[in-house]
Amino acid sequence: xxxxxxxxxxxxxxxxxxxxxxxxxxxxxxxxxxxxxxxxxxxxxxxxxxxxxxxxxxxxxxxxxxxxxxxxxxxxxxxxxxxxxxxxxxxxxxxxxxxxx
Length: 101
Description:
Layout: H1 5-12, H2 16-41, H3 46-53, H4 57-64, H5 72-82
Helix pairs in contact: 2-5, 3-4
């Protein structure tokens, strides 16, 4: 009998090491999706967003393509730039990469 992904995932998430990795990468994917949606909504280039966030355009390109493991500082800059209009600071919700190690 084949098991559903949800069942397998629930079982795997009981392992604290697997859960830390899952939470970290799931969070990263959400940030990338939010960044892409934000830039599309604002018709904003990667370079313009990078300037607003105080990072290089190459950093945003690499992050959006999943080639860069963003630490807490970069993740906070990205998320806070996106939500600046709403005056919300999400830096405490970003998972520190050291938690995975």
